[in-house]
Design brief:
Largest sheet: 7 strands, antiparallel
Radius of gyration: 20 Å
Oligomer: single chain
Distance between the termini: 44 Å
Structural class: alpha+beta
CATH class of the largest domain: Mainly Beta
Strand order of the largest sheet: 2-1-5-6-7-4-3
Shape: globular
Number of domains: 2
CATH architecture of the largest domain: Roll
CATH topology of the largest domain: Pnp Oxidase, Chain A
CATH superfamily of the largest domain: Electron Transport, Fmn-binding Protein, Chain A
Helix content: 25-40%
Order of helices and strands: HHHEEEEHEEHEHHH
Number of strands: 7
Length: 208
């Protein structure tokens, strides 16, 4: 499908609001400036979040996962997100050096509601903070010290519509090529052999 050359676009907030009903108080008034007991309970059960940031060249979003409670609550306004072994692209971290604003979407498997956290983050290598995030004998080299500016629950409609947690809606992974096969299609000059070699190196580095 081609995009119309005379595409209608919305360019101001009033036009946007005109297409929607006014939010009810349980949506408009739920934003906290701290982590209350419900936020902290969700964080203690969450093994996964999505981290977003905005840098000088654009936005980035990436997944973060670990055993439940890996997003450590330091107090009711601060969190510590440890960094684990990954692809070393450092996209979000590079963004934070120029723009400390971040967003987090916190998920708990089987729970359709999510927790949204907006705030600022600093990259820390302070072992006094990082030591408690040790896993399998390894302390993370860096982590994000997150200061909460907004925390609020998000309604379940997106998860209800998608059926994300419903095993009957999970795909057969064979419907798609392997990760390595997709990379050889996307990365110019990358052979299957070289992709496998690099994959072996990543596997040897482990999870922590």
């Amino acid at each position: 499908m081609s995009v119309p050359t005379d595409l209608s676009v919305i360019t101001d907030i009033e036009a946007l609001k005109a297409l929607h009903r006014a939010p009810m108080s349980r949506a408009s008034d739920k934003v906290l400036d701290h982590l209350d007991q419900h936020c902290q309970a969700i964080l203690a059960l969450s093994p996964f979040c999505v981290l977003s940031s905005q840098g000088p060249t654009g936005a980035d979003v990436s997944p973060r996962g670990d055993p439940p409670g890996f997003l450590r609550v330091l107090n009711d306004r601060q969190l510590l997100l440890p960094d684990r072994v990954g692809n070393n692209r450092l996209d979000n971290f590079a963004n934070l050096l120029s723009n400390p604003m971040i967003g987090l979407l916190v998920l708990v498997p089987g729970m359709d509601e999510t927790l949204r956290i907006n705030g600022t983050a600093q990259i820390t290598d302070d072992r006094r903070l990082l030591a408690a995030s040790e896993m399998r004998g390894k302390v993370p080299k860096i982590g994000l010290l997150i200061t909460v500016q907004e925390a609020f629950l998000h309604c379940p409609k997106a998860f209800v519509r998608s059926g994300l947690w419903d095993p009957q809606k999970h795909i057969d992974r064979q419907q798609l090529p392997s990760y390595g096969d997709m990379l050889t299609d996307q990365v110019a000059g990358l052979t299957a052999e070289e992709s496998a070699r690099q994959g072996d190196i990543m596997a040897k580095r482990g999870l922590y």
